[in-house]
């Protein structure tokens, strides 16, 4: 049995495959601060310095680059959509991103996004590894599937490619990580990708009152794409929810 986050499982697998990707098996993993510091050097060499806040900071570029990799959107499109005032820097940011990748590889290090993209590369290119792992994992369980991104969904498909015993748990009405490139379409399109998949609806709520669930049911009823559901409570009805206006000051 193997369990963990996507990143921890990827780290475990990549330790065995690292030499075939051009890394030493003792590669280091950059935390957010280390990655930002390295990216700052690359931005400086690319002529992008955040003096007077006229150019994007390393933090902004790091977020944009991470979103680009996990969503598979070109970096220029990400800058246009999320940081339009810095769109003019897109060509230089792409140069900095290439330099960033080269420096990481030279230093035998990966950032958190590399763990996912490199694992997917292993599963797509090294068929012996893919077949071995997907044969070993007879059953694959994924929690919070509504908040997976395209890279993570492809990893799960690859790990379950032999037995195709994949159980995903999630709620399409609670997808909250789109700002990190998560896409609710992963769970909505699961039955299409796996014809014959069975859907089990867990509609009994043990935490909220019927009054709260009435509001929730009314809201999600308007979702254009969804697995229809009607939440019901085991608790007794109490007071109706109130809307409380708050000041940000």
Describe the structure.
This protein is flat. Strand 5, helix 11 (210-220) and strand 6 form a beta-alpha-beta unit. Helix 1 (6-17) crosses helix 6, helix 2 crosses helix 5 (90-106) and helix 3 packs across helix 4. The protein contains 11 helices and 6 strands. It has helices spanning 6-17, 32-45, 58-71, 75-82, 90-106, 112-125, 127-136, 150-159, 185-188, 190-193, 210-220, and strands at 28-29, 109-110, 140-142, 166-168, 204-205, 232-233. A two-stranded parallel sheet has the order 1-2. The protein is 47% helix and 6% strand. The protein is mainly α.
Number of strands: 6
Beta-strand portion reads 5-15%
- The parts where pLDDT drops under 50 for at least 5 residues are none
Task: Write down the Rg.
Answer: 22 Å
The global form is flat
Structural class given helices, strands, pairing? mainly alpha
Our count of helices gives 11
Order of helices and strands: HEHHHHEHHEHEHHEHE
Query: Would you tell me the overall average pLDDT?
Result: 95
Q: Let me know the largest β-sheet.
A: 2 strands, parallel
List keywords for this structure.
249 residues; mainly alpha; two-stranded parallel sheet; 11 helices; 47% helix; 6% strand; flat
Question: What is shown here, in short?
Answer:
This protein is 47% helix and 6% strand.
Task: Note the topology.
Elements: H1 6-17, E1 28-29, H2 32-45, H3 58-71, H4 75-82, H5 90-106, E2 109-110, H6 112-125, H7 127-136, E3 140-142, H8 150-159, E4 166-168, H9 185-188, H10 190-193, E5 204-205, H11 210-220, E6 232-233
Parallel strand pairs: 1-2, 3-4, 5-6
Helix pairs in contact: 1-6, 2-3, 2-5, 3-4, 6-8
